[in-house]
Amino acid sequence: MKGIIGTLRNLKSEIVAAIVLSAICIWKEHTSLNFLSSVNLSSYLSQDRLNGIAAFFAITIGVYIAVITVLATTEIGITKEMLKKKLDRPLIDVMIVGIIEDFIAVGLAVFIPLNTITGYVLIIFLSASIISFLKFTVLLVFMFKANMNQMARDIDAEEQYKDSILAYLNSISCYCRKHMED
Q1: Predicted model pTM
Q2: How far apart are the first and last CA of the chain?
Q3: From CA 67, how far away is CA 140, in angstroms rounded?
């Protein structure tokens, strides 16, 4: 239960977008306001556009899976910092839900005949998928920055270690030269 609540907290923006878009779609169907009646989903969501949507979200699924694979198989410097800041759960939630949203969007665009209801559902999932992908991108940028900072710290620490070893070797060399002369 705690995991589900945590996941829902991480998906607030997607849920809000889905609710707002659902309300707009219902409102459009039950009112005759001019600015909403000019939106014609069947002409906007042409077959070419649906194919492009399917291709785009198929690519984003690939990106999600590639990042999951890299994170699951490598130990990077950011891992510890992510765990400390509790960013692992939001990243996992965004990736898993993003993949699910993308699969649904691709499935709707490719396999389900377009009508008013499926058009609205597709728009809702497209919006949620885009929001999830943006959140995912922001988390990746944070990981990249933190990883670069960790690498810089590691390089500095390695240089200090090498400098201290060189200083010790120099002092040993001087000591040996001094005592060999005696």
Answers
A1: 0.70
A2: 78
A3: 9
Question: Using CA atoms, how far apart are residues 153 and 110, in angstroms rounded to an integer?
Answer: 48
CB-side exposure of 18: number of CA atoms within 13 Å? 13
- Which two tokens mark 23? 């309300």
In this structure, the number of other CB atoms found within 10 A of the CB of residue 31 comes to: 10
- For residue 53, give the nearest of 96, 107, 97 by alpha carbon: 107
Please compute the mean of the pLDDT values over residues 156-169 and round it to a whole number: 89
**Residues in the chain, total:** 182
φ/ψ of residue 154, rounded to 5: -65, -40
- Phi, psi for residue 109 in degrees, rounded to 5: -70, -30
For residue 125, give the nearest of 105, 99, 148 by alpha carbon. 105
Structure tokens at 35: 């600015």
Cβ(106)–Cβ(54) below 8 Å: yes
**Secondary structure letter of residue 85 according to DSSP:** T
The pLDDT tens digits for 63-101 are 999 988 887 777 666 666 666 666 777 788 888 888 998
Q: Which residues contact 73 (CB under 8 A, 6 or more apart)?
A: none
Task: Measure the CA angle with vertex 147, ends 90 and 5; round to 5°.
Answer: 10
Answer whether 93's CB lies under 8 Å from 7's CB: yes
